[in-house]
Design brief:
The chain has about 450 residues and is an alpha+beta fold. Helix content is about 50%, strand content about 15%. It has 17 helices and 13 strands. The chain has helices at about 25-40, 70-80, 85-105, 110-125, 125-145, 150-160, 165-175, 185-195, 210-220, 235-275, 285, 290-300, 305-310, 330-340, 395, 415-420, 430-435, and strands spanning about 15-20, 45-50, 55-60, 315-320, 325-330, 350-355, 355-360, 360-370, 385, 400-405, 425, 440-445, 450-455. Helix 3 packs antiparallel against helix 4 and helix 3 (about 85-105) runs parallel beside helix 10. About 45% of the residues are buried.
């Protein structure tokens, strides 16, 4: 299928997720994603991705045709029914994540070296789609199988919790073991900083500073996690298998996230050097460029990139032209038309519906949080409303009365943390951040899966 500016508005596009990623991440997925998907015996997708302020990205996929997301979901759902497939996923994720981190550490500000990193990063990029899509597939199946169980919340929490610890859980365990009156705090800070500073990077975030670790040590309180006792109600082998798969996908999602966080963190000094050498402000400027544009910058210098970076402060859209290995950019005029036709609308709505990830009913003040720069406005008992959460959200998640997200399935970060801390949570609302604003009094009702504005 050949997609051009002339026919792109005539196709049936569907918004499906928002993420904070670099433009070069998207261009690499498009170029190498087909090959990466084949490795997992999955079809590739055709995307249009609209970027705001360099990193805020809305993803659209085709609703019909050979490269639509439903076909990919159908194939993945079939593959997940084979117990050997999850073993295969775990093996390949571990192998490729290890290699991605290794390559990122050895990359130099030399054309061929950076190109090698980009190529392997692109081959690994489909991991993001696999864990996201698998989580939603398994969530839908689990909800259907759980609806007639009286202990459905306890069953979900007990059987779907990941058995392995995430990096932030490992950090928490280390903090738990520290003595109350730590004498040599500088040495401990240095050790923890070197080991864990990359955790909140997650593509475009800032790493933790040494000052952050001083605060973590001084203010740390042992997290009171819910102990999941085995439910008395017997479950079917089918349901048990689905919840086991959810547990495995939740782990793979965190494992993959950790690898990409480390890779993006490791590559930053190289990108920073390239940017500064070409009279740019630093690595953040390069988030606005495709990988080809960055390689051009390294090879021929800053001939057109500054203008693209200035433009990306508004909107920039990249789309697959063939479904294989080519991409193009939409004109500004077409971006606006595309969003007007296919973007999500929340005009006049006062409630959002989603999937309950942990039970509870609570009323509180809504706070719409896009990232750490807005954490200062969050108070204890507020209702956290976000596109999605990640490890850097943990400080305010521990203060929250409830979590509400646009994205995610039962294996997503918000769902896992909600069950660990026993906090009401509704995920996958798609438009909660568009409906509610700071200061709205909202009710979160997980029995109905509804978040509504009271006043």
């Amino acid at each position: 299928m050949l997609i051009t500016e002339k026919n792109i508005l005539n196709l049936d596009w569907r918004f499906y997720i928002s993420r904070n990623v670099q433009m070069w991440h998207d261009s690499l997925y498009i170029i190498y994603g087909t090959k990466g998907c084949k490795k997992y015996d999955l079809p590739s997708l055709i995307h249009t991705r609209i970027h705001r302020n360099s990193v805020n990205t809305d993803f659209y996929c085709l609703h019909e045709g050979k490269y639509n997301r439903d076909k990919s979901a159908e194939k993945l759902e079939k593959m997940l029914q084979n117990p050997k497939y999850i073993i295969f996923l775990k093996k390949e994720f571990k192998k490729d994540c290890t290699k991605l981190i290794k390559i990122s550490k050895s990359t130099l500000s030399i054309y061929n070296s950076l190109k090698k990193f980009f190529e392997f990063y692109g081959l690994c990029a489909p991991m993001l789609e696999i864990t996201s899509l698998a989580s939603k597939i398994l969530t839908n199946r689990a909800i259907n199988l759980l609806k007639n169980y009286k202990e459905k919340d306890a069953i979900l929490a007990f059987y779907s919790s990941p058995k392995q610890l995430s990096p932030v859980q490992k950090l928490d365990k280390e903090l738990d073991k520290l003595p109350p009156n730590l004498k040599n705090i500088e040495a401990v800070v240095e050790r923890l900083w070197k080991k864990y500073q990359w955790i909140p990077v997650n593509f475009v975030g800032e790493p933790w500073s040494k000052e952050d670790f001083i605060g973590k040590i001084k203010n740390h309180k042992k997290t009171e996690k819910k102990n999941f006792s085995k439910p008395k109600e017997k479950i079917t082998p089918e349901l048990k298998q689905i919840l086991h798969l959810l547990s495995e996908i939740a782990f793979l999602n965190e494992y993959r996230k950790a690898a990409f966080s480390q890779a993006c963190f490791n590559i930053r000094p190289i990108l920073n050097k390239i940017a500064l050498t070409n009279n740019l402000n630093g690595w953040k400027d390069l988030n606005s460029l495709s990988h080809d544009e960055i390689l051009d910058l390294l090879k021929t210098g800053n001939t057109y990139q500054t203008q693209l970076i200035k433009k990306s402060g508004k909107l920039r859209a990249i789309y697959v032209t063939t479904g294989t290995d080519k991409y193009s950019f939409l004109s500004d005029k077409l971006i606006n038309k595309f969003e007007n036709k296919f973007g999500l609308r929340a005009d006049g709505l006062k409630q959002a519906e989603g999937t309950p990830a942990n039970k509870g009913k609570i009323t509180g003040m809504a706070k719409v949080i896009s990232g750490p720069e807005e954490f200062h406005k969050f108070k204890t008992g507020d209702i956290l409303i976000a596109q999605m959460t990640s490890v850097d959200f943990l400080p305010i998640m521990k203060m929250a009365g409830a979590f509400v997200t646009n994205e995610g399935g039962m294996a997503c970060h918000a769902a896992i943390v909600a069950r660990e801390l026993n906090i009401p949570c509704i995920i996958g609302t798609k438009i909660a951040t568009k409906i509610f604003k700071d200061g709205d009094l909202v009710e979160v009702d997980t029995e109905k899966g509804i978040v509504r504005k009271i006043k």
